Amino acid sequence: MFKQLRTNKVRTFPADQERADIQIHKQNIRDFQLSLTNKIEVSTQLTLNNTKDYIHGDNSDIIATDSQKNTVYVLARQHGIETIEKFALTISDHFLRKYCHVTNTQIYIEEAPWKRISVDGQEHVHAFFFSKEAIRRCEVTQERGEKPLLRSGLKEMRIMKTTQSAFRKFVDDEFRTLPDADDRLFCTVVDSWWWYNSVNGVDFTKVWEGIKGIVLDTFAGPATTGVFSPSVQNTLHLTVRNVLSKIPQVEKMEITLPNVHYFGMDYNKFTKINLKDYKNEVYMPTDKPSGNISARIQRSRLSKL
Q1: Which one, 79, 225, 248, 302, has least CB within 10 Å?
Q2: In which band, very low, low, confident or very high, does the pLDDT at 148 lie, cut at 50, 70 and 90?
Q3: Is residue 33 annotated as involved in ligand binding?
């Protein structure tokens, strides 16, 4: 998706949009023809220093969305894509250097990796299956003459545990109908962003994999025993606290954990069927999350006297 905005001091004008997917294929001949492939989607948004195309019909400063799309493909060819963060920084830098009338850039990239197929316990050298267990993403915004602002994140990571989750002793007034739950299914879809205190020398892939692992470890706990969660809120807080304590490059983190409920099926209404002798537990999912639990937490700074 490519977007171009023009702004002045008074108003912001709408923009056309275009979408493009990029398939990046890299091959290492020295490593038994081992190939790597990733699928990314890039969105570019440019702000210009004038609105003459809107007001006077003068298109001389328009960088067409098709040209923006072509630019991304050319830069991918020229630079490759080591990480989506570095590629987003490259795109932003290019537009600001190339066009003096561009005052601001906003580059958004999503990555959904292909995973190597395993055959007889060995990873295949050139065959993959598409996996969306978590979507990696990043966004760069940059004003002309200023340093780029970079954030990374993950989304659409659905996780669940079947026990060691509770929700009790919340507000009990005339509007409450939800009972206390001492042991419940805990299902959510992780959506998170984090901001860096510096982009210099950062191994973005290592940070992304590290944060993903921390989210999963905090949620699940040890493999044989698990960990108890008194609420989604507490699990969210512990997750961000663990990220900030273990990943020094992260300055702040925002995370949203929606409640995706699974309720035990009520079989009492099936009066003509004897189901009392059957012990299988069956749960019915809700169509949509009932609520989003979210927070943004950042490192504290000591005041200077």
Answers
A1: 302
A2: very high
A3: no
Say what the pTM is: 0.84
Is 204 labeled as ligand-binding?
no
Residue 49 tokens, joined? 């220093």
Q: Assess contact for 186 and 161: CB atoms under 8 A.
A: yes
Residue range 158-186: mean pLDDT, rounded: 94
The two beta strands, 250-258 and 292-298, are antiparallel
Question: How many whole angstroms separate alpha carbon 15 and alpha carbon 209?
Answer: 35
At residue 37, the pLDDT reads 66
30 marked as binding residue: no
d(CA 58, CA 63): 12
Is position 249 annotated in a ligand binding site?
no
Contacts of 62 (CB under 8 A, 6+ apart): 4, 53
> For residue 6, what are the contacts with CB-CB under 8 A and spacing of at least 6?
12, 13, 47, 48, 50, 51, 53, 54
Tokens at 27, concatenated: 């091959």
Three-class DSSP category at 40: strand
Cα separation, 112 vs 305, in Å, equals 47
Cα(36)–Cα(81) distance, integer angstroms: 11
Q: Confirm whether residue 65 is marked as ligand binding.
A: yes
Instruction: Find the mean pLDDT for residues 169-173.
Output: 96
**Percentage of the chain with pLDDT > 70?**
86
Does 103 carry a binding-site annotation? no
What is the H or E stretch that residue 227 is in? none
Tens digits of residue pLDDT in 27-44: 332 333 444 567 889 999
Q: Is 286 annotated as a binding residue?
A: no
CA distance 93 to 105: 9
